[in-house]
Amino acid sequence: MNPSLHTAALIAVMAVGSALLRFLPFLIFRHRTPAFIAYLGKVLPSAIIGMLVIYCLRQTDITASPFGLPELIATAIVVLLQIWKRKTILSIIAGTAAYMLLLQVVFA
User: Using N-to-C axis directions, what is the helix angle for 69-85 and 88-101, rounded to 10°?
Assistant: First the structure.
């Protein structure tokens, strides 16, 4: 098979698969969303964010210098910006920039 045709076929199959997975819940639950699915829609976003925070902070060494201070400061910046501005992308970018600045300049 021609490599270009093979690549195009792979992209088409992935696009159809992605679209199908995104549209499937709307096709299945046309009339009424079950209570369990609505409950999951409410609690899963917070649970996923909590798991991501745990994953990101899992290797923080609090027994050696700088005792997790860059992580703590960057996390505080993200939380405070999110509470204040309610703009997720701003919180993430500012927290990442602060963390990198703290690691490269302050606690180097």
Answer: 160
